[in-house]
Design goal:
By secondary structure, this protein is mainly alpha-helical. It has one domain (3-97). 87% of the residues lie in helices and 0% in strands. It has helices at 3-21, 23-44, 54-97.
């Protein structure tokens, strides 16, 4: 592993950890979860009454899923960078043994 890669991974990991600790992220998460609840009650828990509303309902389902994906990004990235750092450390140890 190049030193630049290690620094980049560690920097990205630190950035995402800092992000989820920030007041702004907590606020955004609360807003996102509230928006998901609105869509959940409006579309997922409410049966379709008219076929004409199917496209609108599907659109709101997509919004619900998209908000969930956005809220999951920091934790997903933290896991990814932790794994990259571990993998590269093992790779470095194996190269040192050779």
């Amino acid at each position: 592993m190049k030193i630049e890669d290690r620094r980049e991974y560690e920097g990205a990991l630190r950035d995402f950890k800092d992000l989820i600790k920030s007041k702004g992220w907590k606020r955004l998460s609360e807003v996102g979860q509230a928006q998901q609840e609105v869509r959940k009650h409006a579309v997922i828990l409410t049966p379709l009454k008219e076929l004409d509303n199917a496209l609108e309902q599907e659109f709101m389902k997509g919004e619900y899923a998209g908000i969930g994906l956005l809220l999951a990004i920091p934790e997903t990235e933290i896991s990814k960078y932790n794994e990259l750092i571990k993998l590269n450390q093992v790779k470095k140890e194996n190269e040192d043994e050779d």
